[in-house]
Amino acid sequence: MAEGDNSLHSLFASGETLYNSIENSDLASSDIKYQEDVRRALECFSKMEAYLGNLTSKLIEGERLDILKRARQYHEQFLRNVELHEILTKEDRDYMEQASNDLTKNAAKTREIKIARYKRKIALEKEIKELEQQFETLGERIDENIKRKHVLKLVELFIQKSLDELASIKQETELLEKMRMTLNQGIEQKKTDELYKADSRLRNPNGPLLSKEGRPLQPFIITNKREAIQKEVFRPGWRLPTMTVDEYLQQEMERGNIISGGGKIPEKKEIDDNDESAIDAATYKAREMDEFKDANPRGWGNRMGKG
Protein backbone atom coordinates (compact mmCIF):
# COMPACT_ATOMS: atom_id res chain seq x y z
CA MET A 1 0.00 0.00 0.00
CA ALA A 2 1.38 3.42 -0.96
CA GLU A 3 2.32 6.05 1.59
CA GLY A 4 -0.48 8.35 0.39
CA ASP A 5 -2.99 5.56 0.83
CA ASN A 6 -1.69 4.93 4.34
CA SER A 7 -2.08 8.61 5.29
CA LEU A 8 -5.56 8.73 3.76
CA HIS A 9 -6.53 5.52 5.53
CA SER A 10 -5.20 6.80 8.83
CA LEU A 11 -7.05 10.09 8.36
CA PHE A 12 -10.29 8.24 7.69
CA ALA A 13 -9.70 5.92 10.63
CA SER A 14 -9.09 8.81 13.00
CA GLY A 15 -12.14 10.58 11.61
CA GLU A 16 -14.24 7.45 12.01
CA THR A 17 -13.10 7.09 15.61
CA LEU A 18 -13.89 10.73 16.29
CA TYR A 19 -17.28 10.41 14.59
CA ASN A 20 -18.21 7.38 16.70
CA SER A 21 -17.18 9.20 19.86
CA ILE A 22 -19.41 12.12 18.86
CA GLU A 23 -22.34 9.81 18.15
CA ASN A 24 -21.94 8.10 21.53
CA SER A 25 -21.04 11.24 23.48
CA ASP A 26 -22.97 12.20 26.60
CA LEU A 27 -22.08 15.87 26.17
CA ALA A 28 -24.70 18.40 25.21
CA SER A 29 -24.58 19.71 21.67
CA SER A 30 -23.90 23.20 23.06
CA ASP A 31 -20.81 22.00 24.94
CA ILE A 32 -17.58 23.61 23.73
CA LYS A 33 -15.66 20.32 23.53
CA TYR A 34 -18.51 18.69 21.62
CA GLN A 35 -18.50 21.48 19.03
CA GLU A 36 -14.70 21.31 18.73
CA ASP A 37 -14.91 17.57 18.03
CA VAL A 38 -17.56 18.19 15.38
CA ARG A 39 -15.34 20.72 13.60
CA ARG A 40 -12.34 18.37 13.71
CA ALA A 41 -14.46 15.56 12.28
CA LEU A 42 -15.67 17.83 9.48
CA GLU A 43 -12.04 18.39 8.46
CA CYS A 44 -11.47 14.63 8.30
CA PHE A 45 -14.49 14.03 6.02
CA SER A 46 -14.14 17.03 3.72
CA LYS A 47 -15.26 15.02 0.64
CA MET A 48 -17.70 12.53 2.18
CA GLU A 49 -21.23 13.91 2.03
CA ALA A 50 -22.74 11.28 4.31
CA TYR A 51 -20.51 12.28 7.23
CA LEU A 52 -20.61 15.97 6.36
CA GLY A 53 -24.40 16.10 6.40
CA ASN A 54 -24.65 14.33 9.73
CA LEU A 55 -21.95 16.45 11.36
CA THR A 56 -23.07 19.78 9.90
CA SER A 57 -26.52 19.45 11.46
CA LYS A 58 -24.82 19.21 14.87
CA LEU A 59 -23.28 22.69 14.59
CA ILE A 60 -24.85 25.49 16.62
CA GLU A 61 -22.84 28.55 15.58
CA GLY A 62 -24.36 30.73 12.88
CA GLU A 63 -27.84 31.00 11.43
CA ARG A 64 -29.66 27.74 12.07
CA LEU A 65 -31.58 27.79 8.80
CA ASP A 66 -28.33 28.15 6.85
CA ILE A 67 -26.80 25.22 8.75
CA LEU A 68 -29.82 23.05 8.00
CA LYS A 69 -29.68 24.06 4.35
CA ARG A 70 -26.03 22.96 4.05
CA ALA A 71 -26.74 19.70 5.86
CA ARG A 72 -29.69 18.97 3.56
CA GLN A 73 -27.54 19.59 0.49
CA TYR A 74 -24.90 17.11 1.75
CA HIS A 75 -27.51 14.42 2.42
CA GLU A 76 -29.23 14.93 -0.92
CA GLN A 77 -25.90 14.77 -2.77
CA PHE A 78 -25.00 11.54 -0.95
CA LEU A 79 -28.34 9.96 -1.85
CA ARG A 80 -27.93 11.01 -5.48
CA ASN A 81 -24.51 9.36 -5.54
CA VAL A 82 -25.71 6.04 -4.11
CA GLU A 83 -28.65 6.07 -6.50
CA LEU A 84 -26.28 6.72 -9.38
CA HIS A 85 -24.22 3.68 -8.33
CA GLU A 86 -27.43 1.63 -7.99
CA ILE A 87 -26.88 1.01 -4.29
CA LEU A 88 -30.18 2.55 -3.25
CA THR A 89 -32.86 -0.11 -2.78
CA LYS A 90 -36.41 0.15 -4.09
CA GLU A 91 -37.71 0.32 -0.53
CA ASP A 92 -35.53 3.33 0.24
CA ARG A 93 -36.40 4.97 -3.07
CA ASP A 94 -40.14 4.61 -2.36
CA TYR A 95 -39.65 6.02 1.12
CA MET A 96 -37.79 9.03 -0.30
CA GLU A 97 -40.60 9.70 -2.75
CA GLN A 98 -43.25 9.44 -0.05
CA ALA A 99 -41.31 11.70 2.31
CA SER A 100 -40.63 14.37 -0.33
CA ASN A 101 -44.25 14.44 -1.56
CA ASP A 102 -45.94 13.87 1.82
CA LEU A 103 -47.81 10.91 0.37
CA THR A 104 -47.99 9.00 3.65
CA LYS A 105 -51.13 10.30 5.35
CA ASN A 106 -52.08 7.19 7.32
CA ALA A 107 -50.64 7.55 10.83
CA ALA A 108 -50.68 3.81 11.49
CA LYS A 109 -48.90 3.09 8.21
CA THR A 110 -46.32 5.76 8.94
CA ARG A 111 -45.67 4.28 12.36
CA GLU A 112 -45.18 0.80 10.88
CA ILE A 113 -42.67 2.17 8.37
CA LYS A 114 -40.72 3.96 11.10
CA ILE A 115 -40.59 0.83 13.26
CA ALA A 116 -39.43 -1.31 10.34
CA ARG A 117 -36.73 1.19 9.41
CA TYR A 118 -35.58 1.44 13.02
CA LYS A 119 -35.23 -2.34 13.27
CA ARG A 120 -33.34 -2.35 9.99
CA LYS A 121 -30.99 0.32 11.29
CA ILE A 122 -30.32 -1.61 14.52
CA ALA A 123 -29.60 -4.78 12.52
CA LEU A 124 -27.16 -2.90 10.29
CA GLU A 125 -25.30 -1.46 13.26
CA LYS A 126 -25.04 -4.94 14.75
CA GLU A 127 -23.65 -6.40 11.52
CA ILE A 128 -21.14 -3.57 11.17
CA LYS A 129 -19.96 -4.09 14.73
CA GLU A 130 -19.46 -7.81 14.11
CA LEU A 131 -17.47 -7.08 10.96
CA GLU A 132 -15.28 -4.59 12.81
CA GLN A 133 -14.60 -7.23 15.45
CA GLN A 134 -13.37 -9.51 12.67
CA PHE A 135 -11.01 -6.73 11.58
CA GLU A 136 -9.53 -6.61 15.05
CA THR A 137 -9.22 -10.39 15.22
CA LEU A 138 -7.80 -11.11 11.76
CA GLY A 139 -5.82 -7.91 11.28
CA GLU A 140 -4.04 -7.87 7.91
CA ARG A 141 -5.30 -11.38 7.13
CA ILE A 142 -8.81 -10.01 6.64
CA ASP A 143 -10.54 -11.14 3.46
CA GLU A 144 -11.34 -8.53 0.78
CA ASN A 145 -14.93 -9.75 0.63
CA ILE A 146 -15.35 -8.91 4.30
CA LYS A 147 -13.93 -5.43 3.67
CA ARG A 148 -16.30 -4.93 0.78
CA LYS A 149 -19.25 -6.16 2.83
CA HIS A 150 -18.27 -3.78 5.63
CA VAL A 151 -18.19 -0.81 3.24
CA LEU A 152 -21.57 -1.71 1.73
CA LYS A 153 -23.13 -2.07 5.16
CA LEU A 154 -21.72 1.31 6.15
CA VAL A 155 -23.19 2.88 3.03
CA GLU A 156 -26.54 1.23 3.71
CA LEU A 157 -26.47 2.48 7.30
CA PHE A 158 -25.71 6.02 6.21
CA ILE A 159 -28.54 5.84 3.70
CA GLN A 160 -30.91 5.21 6.60
CA LYS A 161 -29.30 8.00 8.62
CA SER A 162 -29.53 10.43 5.72
CA LEU A 163 -33.20 9.65 5.18
CA ASP A 164 -33.91 10.18 8.87
CA GLU A 165 -31.85 13.37 8.91
CA LEU A 166 -33.68 14.77 5.90
CA ALA A 167 -37.04 14.18 7.58
CA SER A 168 -35.79 15.82 10.77
CA ILE A 169 -34.29 18.76 8.86
CA LYS A 170 -37.56 19.28 7.01
CA GLN A 171 -39.56 19.43 10.25
CA GLU A 172 -37.08 21.76 11.96
CA THR A 173 -36.93 24.05 8.92
CA GLU A 174 -40.71 24.36 8.80
CA LEU A 175 -40.78 25.12 12.53
CA LEU A 176 -38.06 27.78 12.27
CA GLU A 177 -39.75 29.42 9.30
CA LYS A 178 -43.03 29.59 11.21
CA MET A 179 -41.21 31.07 14.19
CA ARG A 180 -39.55 33.66 11.98
CA MET A 181 -42.88 34.53 10.38
CA THR A 182 -44.51 34.85 13.80
CA LEU A 183 -41.64 37.02 15.01
CA ASN A 184 -41.91 39.29 11.97
CA GLN A 185 -45.65 39.58 12.46
CA GLY A 186 -45.07 40.46 16.11
CA ILE A 187 -42.59 43.17 15.14
CA GLU A 188 -45.00 44.61 12.58
CA GLN A 189 -47.83 44.50 15.11
CA LYS A 190 -45.64 46.26 17.68
CA LYS A 191 -44.85 49.01 15.18
CA THR A 192 -48.54 49.36 14.38
CA ASP A 193 -49.41 49.57 18.08
CA GLU A 194 -46.76 52.22 18.66
CA LEU A 195 -48.06 54.27 15.73
CA TYR A 196 -51.60 53.91 17.04
CA LYS A 197 -50.54 55.02 20.51
CA ALA A 198 -48.69 58.00 19.07
CA ASP A 199 -51.73 58.92 17.01
CA SER A 200 -53.96 58.56 20.07
CA ARG A 201 -51.71 60.88 22.03
CA LEU A 202 -51.85 63.43 19.25
CA ARG A 203 -55.63 63.22 19.25
CA ASN A 204 -55.64 63.79 23.02
CA PRO A 205 -53.58 66.98 23.48
CA ASN A 206 -54.84 67.42 27.04
CA GLY A 207 -53.12 64.24 28.18
CA PRO A 208 -49.84 64.15 30.12
CA LEU A 209 -46.68 65.26 28.35
CA LEU A 210 -44.39 62.76 30.08
CA SER A 211 -44.79 59.19 31.28
CA LYS A 212 -43.87 58.01 34.75
CA GLU A 213 -40.45 57.04 33.42
CA GLY A 214 -39.93 60.53 32.01
CA ARG A 215 -40.46 59.54 28.38
CA PRO A 216 -42.33 62.08 26.20
CA LEU A 217 -45.84 60.92 25.38
CA GLN A 218 -46.64 63.65 22.87
CA PRO A 219 -44.78 66.40 21.05
CA PHE A 220 -44.43 69.74 22.84
CA ILE A 221 -42.58 73.04 22.35
CA ILE A 222 -40.45 74.63 25.04
CA THR A 223 -40.88 78.43 24.98
CA ASN A 224 -39.87 81.36 27.20
CA LYS A 225 -43.10 82.89 28.60
CA ARG A 226 -41.37 85.25 31.02
CA GLU A 227 -42.07 88.37 28.95
CA ALA A 228 -45.70 87.39 28.35
CA ILE A 229 -46.25 86.76 32.07
CA GLN A 230 -44.50 90.03 32.92
CA LYS A 231 -46.82 91.96 30.60
CA GLU A 232 -49.83 90.33 32.23
CA VAL A 233 -48.66 91.35 35.71
CA PHE A 234 -47.51 94.93 35.12
CA ARG A 235 -50.60 96.41 33.43
CA PRO A 236 -53.64 98.54 34.44
CA GLY A 237 -56.54 96.86 36.19
CA TRP A 238 -58.94 97.78 33.38
CA ARG A 239 -58.99 96.79 29.77
CA LEU A 240 -57.35 99.30 27.47
CA PRO A 241 -58.73 100.08 24.01
CA THR A 242 -57.10 98.20 21.23
CA MET A 243 -58.27 100.43 18.34
CA THR A 244 -59.68 103.87 17.60
CA VAL A 245 -63.32 104.60 16.80
CA ASP A 246 -62.51 105.12 13.14
CA GLU A 247 -60.69 101.79 13.01
CA TYR A 248 -63.67 100.09 14.63
CA LEU A 249 -66.12 101.63 12.17
CA GLN A 250 -63.88 100.67 9.28
CA GLN A 251 -63.74 97.10 10.58
CA GLU A 252 -67.52 96.95 10.99
CA MET A 253 -67.98 98.33 7.50
CA GLU A 254 -65.69 95.64 6.10
CA ARG A 255 -67.73 93.02 7.92
CA GLY A 256 -70.90 94.40 6.30
CA ASN A 257 -72.52 95.49 9.55
CA ILE A 258 -73.01 99.11 8.36
CA ILE A 259 -75.48 99.89 5.58
CA SER A 260 -74.45 102.82 3.46
CA GLY A 261 -76.14 104.62 0.62
CA GLY A 262 -79.88 105.55 0.44
CA GLY A 263 -81.33 109.05 -0.22
CA LYS A 264 -84.17 111.41 0.72
CA ILE A 265 -87.30 110.06 2.38
CA PRO A 266 -89.99 109.85 -0.30
CA GLU A 267 -92.80 112.37 0.15
CA LYS A 268 -96.33 111.15 0.77
CA LYS A 269 -98.36 111.23 -2.41
CA GLU A 270 -101.21 113.67 -2.24
CA ILE A 271 -104.66 112.47 -3.38
CA ASP A 272 -106.29 114.53 -6.08
CA ASP A 273 -109.65 115.91 -4.92
CA ASN A 274 -111.15 115.24 -8.32
CA ASP A 275 -110.07 111.55 -8.32
CA GLU A 276 -113.11 109.90 -6.75
CA SER A 277 -111.77 106.34 -7.08
CA ALA A 278 -108.59 107.24 -5.21
CA ILE A 279 -110.62 109.01 -2.52
CA ASP A 280 -112.90 105.97 -2.16
CA ALA A 281 -109.91 103.60 -1.92
CA ALA A 282 -108.31 105.72 0.81
CA THR A 283 -111.63 105.88 2.67
CA TYR A 284 -112.10 102.08 2.54
CA LYS A 285 -108.55 101.56 3.73
CA ALA A 286 -109.05 103.90 6.67
CA ARG A 287 -112.31 102.13 7.62
CA GLU A 288 -110.61 98.73 7.50
CA MET A 289 -107.87 99.99 9.77
CA ASP A 290 -110.44 101.39 12.21
CA GLU A 291 -112.32 98.10 12.24
CA PHE A 292 -109.06 96.20 12.85
CA LYS A 293 -108.18 98.48 15.77
CA ASP A 294 -111.64 98.00 17.27
CA ALA A 295 -111.40 94.22 16.94
CA ASN A 296 -107.80 94.14 18.20
CA PRO A 297 -107.34 96.72 20.94
CA ARG A 298 -103.81 97.65 21.98
CA GLY A 299 -102.27 95.06 24.29
CA TRP A 300 -104.90 92.46 23.44
CA GLY A 301 -102.32 89.82 22.48
CA ASN A 302 -100.62 87.39 24.89
CA ARG A 303 -101.43 88.74 28.34
CA MET A 304 -99.35 86.11 30.17
CA GLY A 305 -102.45 84.48 31.69
CA LYS A 306 -103.85 87.72 33.11
CA GLY A 307 -107.15 87.47 31.24
Automatic annotation (TrEMBL):
GO terms for biological process: regulation of dephosphorylation; regulation of signal transduction. GO terms for cellular component: cytosol. Keywords: Coiled coil. GO terms for molecular function: protein phosphatase 2A binding. InterPro entries: TAP42/TAP46-like_sf, TAP46-like. It comes from the Eukaryota. Pfam families: TAP42. Transmembrane segments: none annotated. Gene3D superfamilies: TAP42-like family. Residues 121-179 form a coiled coil. This is 9670_t:CDS:1. It comes from Ambispora leptoticha.
